[in-house]
């Protein structure tokens, strides 16, 4: 049976760091409020010339190098983003061209903060059915460009960045064989108004700004994430104690703590980068994963749970053995 193995990871951040104190100079907020409510201390903001595709390409190159493979062998690129360079074509095709692996499959997935989970599951399905052999799965965003910088309830929460993984079809055998073990995705369109962008090509012909009812999003997030993690564990026949690491979507430290507590997962097993990166939407899970692999926490053989929830609502979880 074919399984998708994670061969390598990479990430990219814009050059410019904006601290809470710097933000407090332009909106009515304080470092203390932001840290206490969210755990965020700083975020990276894209400058001139930095785009979703440029960050995605940099992250993809780092992942290819980490995996030790040539871009030419990539036959699938799935890129999760809610902030594409253009309405069309897909940002994935720009990345493909920049990497020089033209000819294979390349498309974007729009599931906002859950985008990387949706992209990973889609790429895994295409690999397991034999449609692709080696895939780049990327989450990349420039949310700073859809924020209302006058709205202190949202603009303090987000940042820009990209993360990527290389997946490869493997037919290795053995009970502890590496690869993606299980995945569950969900969506509930009834929750549209809790988190959305108030513009788009088919409605206002503008890009629009992010709008959110934060308190209600928070409440749904903890319930939905705890449920979907439980589903993936049950599907995979794995107990919660066997998980070595949880790599969650980095929305808010309080959501991470509350979800871990609800599931009985020790906080030391939860990878946290929200303090450094803020919420980078689809990029946050692969960014956090790459940080934890490169600093040596996530190692070969470890059991890792990815999870995310975002606008739509969409949410999902995926379990992988490294
Ligand atoms: N600085 C200072 N004060 C602020 C700020 C700010 N940046 N933003 C809001 N406030 C004020 C409000 O005006 C309000 O004042 P009031 O009591 O005088 O009316 C007060 O702080 C409390 O506001 P709440 O919105 O009730 O604060 P809450 O404790 O719910 O925290 C937050 C807000 C951080 C947005 C929280 O609800 C949250 O994290 N929600 C989850 C949303 C999220 O992470 N979304 C990301 C996308 S979805 C996802 O990724 C899961």
From TrEMBL:
Subcellular localization: Cytoplasm
GO cellular component: cytoplasm
Top enzyme category: transferase
Keywords noted in UniProt: Acyltransferase, Cytoplasm, Fatty acid biosynthesis, Fatty acid metabolism, Lipid biosynthesis, Lipid metabolism, Multifunctional enzyme, Transferase
Region (ACP-binding): 250-254
Domain Beta-ketoacyl-[acyl-carrier-protein] synthase III C-terminal residues, every copy: 233-321
BP GO terms, sorted: fatty acid biosynthetic process; secondary metabolite biosynthetic process
Active site positions, chain numbering: 113, 249, 279
Family annotation (InterPro entries): ACP_syn_III_C, ACP_syn_III_N, FabH, Thiolase-like
Enzyme Commission number(s): 2.3.1.180
GO molecular function: 3-oxoacyl-[acyl-carrier-protein] synthase activity; beta-ketoacyl-acyl-carrier-protein synthase III activity
Functional pathway: Lipid metabolism; fatty acid biosynthesis
Main location: cytoplasm
Pfam families, sorted: ACP_syn_III (PF08545), ACP_syn_III_C (PF08541)
Ranges of residues in domain Beta-ketoacyl-[acyl-carrier-protein] synthase III N-terminal: 107-189
Keyword Lipid metabolism assigned: yes
Catalytic activity field: malonyl-[ACP] + acetyl-CoA + H(+) = 3-oxobutanoyl-[ACP] + CO2 + CoA
Alphabetical list of Gene3D superfamilies matching this protein: 3.40.47.10
Top-level taxonomic group: Bacteria
Homology family: Belongs to the thiolase-like superfamily. FabH family.
NCBIfam families noted in UniProt: fabH (TIGR00747), PRK09352.1 (NF006829)
Subunit structure: Homodimer.
Function, in words: Catalyzes the condensation reaction of fatty acid synthesis by the addition to an acyl acceptor of two carbons from malonyl-ACP. Catalyzes the first condensation reaction which initiates fatty acid synthesis and may therefore play a role in governing the total rate of fatty acid production. Possesses both acetoacetyl-ACP synthase and acetyl transacylase activities. Its substrate specificity determines the biosynthesis of branched-chain and/or straight-chain of fatty acids.
Entry note about domains: The last Arg residue of the ACP-binding site is essential for the weak association between ACP/AcpP and FabH.
Protein name: Beta-ketoacyl-[acyl-carrier-protein] synthase III
Organism: Altererythrobacter rubellus
Gene field: fabH
């Amino acid at each position: 049976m074919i399984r998708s193995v994670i061969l390598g990871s990479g990430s990219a951040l814009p050059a410019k760091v904006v601290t809470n104190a710097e933000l407090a100079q332009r909106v009515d907020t304080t470092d203390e409020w932001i840290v206490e409510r969210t755990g965020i201390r700083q975020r990276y903001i894209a400058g001139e010339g930095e785009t979703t595709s440029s960050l995605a390409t940099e992250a993809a190159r780092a992942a290819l190098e980490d995996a030790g493979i040539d871009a030419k062998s990539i036959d699938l690129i799935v890129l999760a983003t809610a902030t594409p360079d253009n309405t069309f074509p897909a940002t994935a095709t720009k990345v493909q061209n920049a990497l020089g692996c033209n000819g294979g499959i390349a498309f974007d997935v729009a599931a906002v903060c859950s985008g990387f989970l949706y992209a990973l599951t889609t790429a895994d399905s295409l690999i397991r059915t034999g449609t692709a052999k080696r895939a780049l799965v990327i989450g990349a965003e420039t949310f700073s460009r859809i924020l209302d910088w006058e709205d202190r309830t949202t603009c303090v929460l987000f940042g820009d960045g990209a993360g990527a993984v290389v997946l490869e079809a493997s037919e290795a055998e053995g009970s502890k064989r590496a690869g993606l073990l299980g995945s569950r995705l969900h969506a509930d369109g009834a929750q549209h108004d809790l988190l959305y962008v108030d513009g788009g090509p088919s409605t206002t012909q503008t890009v629009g700004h992010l709008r959110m009812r934060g308190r209600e999003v928070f409440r749904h997030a903890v319930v939905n994430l705890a449920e979907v993690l439980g589903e993936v564990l049950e599907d995979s026949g794995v107990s919660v104690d066997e998980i070595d690491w949880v790599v969650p979507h980095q929305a808010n430290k309080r959501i991470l703590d509350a979800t871990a507590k609800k599931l009985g997962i020790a906080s030391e097993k939860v990878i946290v980068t929200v303090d450094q990166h803020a919420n980078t939407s689809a990029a946050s899970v692969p960014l956090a994963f790459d940080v934890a692999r490169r600093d040596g926490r996530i190692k070969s053989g470890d059991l890792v749970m990815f999870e995310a929830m975002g606008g739509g609502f969409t949410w999902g979880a995926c379990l992988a053995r490294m």
